[in-house]
Amino acid sequence: MPLPKAPNKPATIVLPVETPRADTPRARRPAPIAKLAPEPVARERPAAHLALVETRTRTGTRKPRAVSGKPRLFVLDTNVLMHDPTSLFRFEEHDIFLPMMTLEELDGHKKGMSEVARNARQASRSLDALVATCHHPIEEGIALSAIGNAEATGRLFLQTQAIGEALPPSLPVGKADNHILGVVRALSETRTGCDVVLVSKDINMRVKARALGLSAEDYTNDKVLEDTDLLYTGVLPLPESFWDRHSKGMESWQQGGATYYRVTGPLVSELLINEFVFLEAATPFYAQVKEIRGKTAVLRVLRDYLHAKNAVWGITARNREQSFALNLLMDPDCDFVTLIGQAGTGKTLLALAAGLAQTLETRRFSEIVVTRATVPIGEDIGFLPGTEEEKMAPWMGALEDNLEVLNRGDDSAGDWGRAATNDLIRTRIRIKAMSFMRGRTFINKFLIIDEAQNLTPKQMKTLITRAGPGTKVVCLGNIAQIDTPYLTEGSSGLSFVVDRFKGWPHAGHVTLQRGERSRLADHAAEVL
């Protein structure tokens, strides 16, 4: 429904003199304000800025810069600072403007122990440090590089004066979002020397801004990739002509029970360490890249976990990608493994089987530690009584289901034997809540992080840095099933670590393609 036209004499909103209604969720009583910062002085820019070139802005989006070469002034919504407190320094050479209502809302969210509250406090500390470096009138702007962020060459401007701006009368006066929109509109009309752009994580806020003829963008600097189809899969199919083009001067040898090939050719430049390569031909070839030097790569032939003789805790791989995953999970030189796949691809079962085999059979690890993000799909069920493990039990249904599958294989032991095995297994599995992970160090543990797609990059860093000597960390998840608000496939902590760890000699990743749960689950994943 289009917004009604404003009357001949537009209604004036004075910011922030208008007192917000108490029942408005985001509204807070604004503080007294001095005066408005003047338009920033345009600094000299290289001639390349005058051409139509593709550039990555601070919001992370790639877009052509205006032909006019105007500098850009980004007005930040509060949710940007609460989502990424370092966003102040993510806008390269561009200037930033913070409305007073943004500071008011930041102040209102600083209390508590939540991730949002911590981010609000961190953003406030950064602002305090920046203001402390200002020894000239604050209206002239504060250098964002003043506290050591050399890549941020722009300036920070704070609203220091009440701004009066006409907005359609259909927009409520007491709503904080509309105050910020009024500031953006006023800046767009008064600062003709620069392009004023609102940056907000709130979709409706961006829609309203565009309806008013204002420029608005999402903050996407936290996204690893714009398109998750480009996310590293860990697997590369070889062309049929691979041996013809790469067999010249090829070497082959045996070492440690494995076969190695040293090949040279043009495809080597596209390979990464620990990436899996395969060639489906009359004689299938499955290998892993172990070394790259210039145009020469060393490939190690994989152990075939599709064969029953290589079963792991009674489990054999059912497809090519599962065999790749077991090669990573059973590799003592691989400290960090990420597995991504839709429901039913066997992520948890493979990880748990590999953990049990290396904990109870080879004794590489002392115990298995399992944790996951406690994000409900629907409404929360409320308070859960009991100890830490009892509180985590409802979230560990997937673990229980997979343990039942793993303990079902040995029928010769009878009911008593299975019960004894089950008790032994449970003594070596610890269920831990993420809330108490900070400060801990896991030594010789097999750490499984389930549902990792619901973690932020910061939470993922906190968990992975818990690993001590001899610990293996396995992250499992499906980036198509994110339940955490404000996280997307591109900004999920799981996508973040997959991209950052690719090519590291002690890390590996596999994207599982085929579901093996049941024909019903596979069909539902395709059509629903």
- In angstroms, what separates the terminal alpha carbons? 31 Å
H/I helix tally: 14
Percent helix among the residues?
25-40%
- Tell me the structural class: alpha/beta
Give unreliable regions as ranges.
Answer: 1-68
Strand content: 15-25%
Total count of strands: 22
C-alpha geometry: globular
Oligomeric state of shown chains: single chain
Please state the CA-atom Rg, rounded to the nearest Å.
28 Å
Mean pLDDT: 80
Major sheet details: 6 strands, mixed
Strand order of the largest sheet: 6-7-5-4-9-10
Written description of the protein model:
With 528 residues, this protein is an alpha/beta fold. Helix content is 27%, strand content 20%. A hairpin with a 5-residue loop joins strand 2 (54-56) and strand 3 (62-64). The two termini are 31 Å apart. The model is unreliable at 1-68 (pLDDT under 50).
Topology:
Blueprint: E1 12-15, E2 54-56, E3 62-64, E4 72-76, H1 78-83, E5 95-98, H2 100-108, H3 115-132, E6 142-143, E7 155-158, E8 163-166, H4 176-190, E9 195-199, H5 203-211, E10 215-217, E11 235-237, H6 242-246, E12 251-255, E13 258-264, E14 276-279, E15 285-293, E16 296-301, H7 320-329, E17 336-341, H8 347-361, E18 367-372, H9 388-392, H10 397-406, H11 414-427, E19 429-431, E20 445-450, H12 457-464, E21 472-477, H13 493-501, E22 507-512, H14 519-527
Parallel strand pairs: 4-5, 4-9, 5-7, 9-10, 11-14, 17-21, 17-22, 18-19, 18-20, 20-21
Antiparallel strand pairs: 1-8, 2-3, 6-7, 12-13, 13-16, 14-15, 15-16
Helix pairs in contact: 7-8, 8-10, 12-13
